[in-house]
Specification:
By secondary structure, this protein is α/β, with parallel strands linked by helices. About 25% of the residues lie in helices and about 25% in strands. The protein has one domain (about 1-205): Rossmann fold, CATH 3.40.50.150. The protein has helices spanning about 1-5, 10-25, 45-50, 65-75, 115-125, 175-180, and strands at about 35, 55-60, 90, 105-110, 130-145, 155, 160-165, 170, 185-190, 200-205. Strands 1, 2, 3, 4, 5, 8, 9 and 10 form an eight-stranded mixed beta sheet that branches. Strands 6-7 form a two-stranded antiparallel sheet. S-adenosylmethionine binds near residues 7 and 62.
Length: about 210
């Protein structure tokens, strides 16, 4: 199905990985979760089953991916009633505060990998307005190690994806992302390997109180 390919394929593997990772980090069914760049609900279909009804929210720039996910993934799985349409927002500017609720956990899987630095900065400005103090944003990125010239293409293994400094898919140094969080209420930690099949790394950003 094309919506599955549009979010990168590996539908079951990366969907399961996201759920397993979040549960390993302490996600509980009673938490309210925001899926930033939710796409067609690759993680969403699993999170909708795990979380209490109404606790999964998603935002994405692409309305077609959301609609395809609702029609071809969420409805056939019998999960439509667990997610009111008001839990979904089409926006490219990350204004999660428009939901009018505060979140315990947010996830941006394979999203910063497609964003410019200024778009990441906007995301990091907007999200704290919708997170409880102590809430966590988990965000994946392609890492450019210190030994690699950032202006050169970088091939990642496993997965064989080539990333770039100045076009999509992007790589960043850890320090670039720390700088993008400067002056904002975040405490940033890079986590260790989390078994991503395309070598994306995981940042943990805690919303400071
Ligand atoms: C590779 S897909 C990953 C989708 C989902 N996180 C997953 O793991 O299946 C990247 C998603 O980010 C969304 N996206 C890209 N730029 C965005 C922006 N500025 N605001 C919101 N979503 C964006 C895309 O529309 C797409 O759904």
């Amino acid at each position: 199905m094309s919506h599955r390919e549009a979010v990168g394929g590996l539908w079951d593997e990366i969907g399961e990985l996201q759920l397993r990772f979040l549960v390993s980090q302490g996600l509980e069914p009673g938490h309210r979760l925001l899926d930033v760049g939710c796409g067609s609900f690759r993680a969403g279909v699993r999170l909708l089953r795990y979380l209490e009804a109404g606790n999964y929210y998603g935002l994405d720039a692409n309305a077609e991916l959301i609609d395809a996910g609702l029609e071809h993934e969420v409805a056939p799985a019998g999960l439509t009633e667990r997610m009111p349409r008001s839990n979904l927002l089409v926006t490219s500017e990350f204004e999660a505060s428009r939901f009018g609720v505060l979140f315990d956990v947010a996830l941006a899987q394979s999203v910063f990998t497609h964003l410019t630095a200024n778009q990441i900065r906007r995301c990091l400005i907007e999200l704290p307005r919708a997170l409880k103090p102590g809430a966590v944003l988990y965000a994946t990125f392609f890492e450019c190690p210190d030994g690699h010239p950032e202006e050169q293409p970088l091939r990642h293994e496993p997965g064989g994806i080539t990333t770039f400094m100045d076009h999509d898919p992007f790589h960043y140094r850890e320090e670039d992302l720390r700088r993008l969080a400067d002056g904002l209420p975040w405490e940033v930690t890079k986590l260790g390997p989390w078994e991503h099949p395309r070598d994306q790394r995981m940042l943990r950003l805690v919303r400071a109180g």
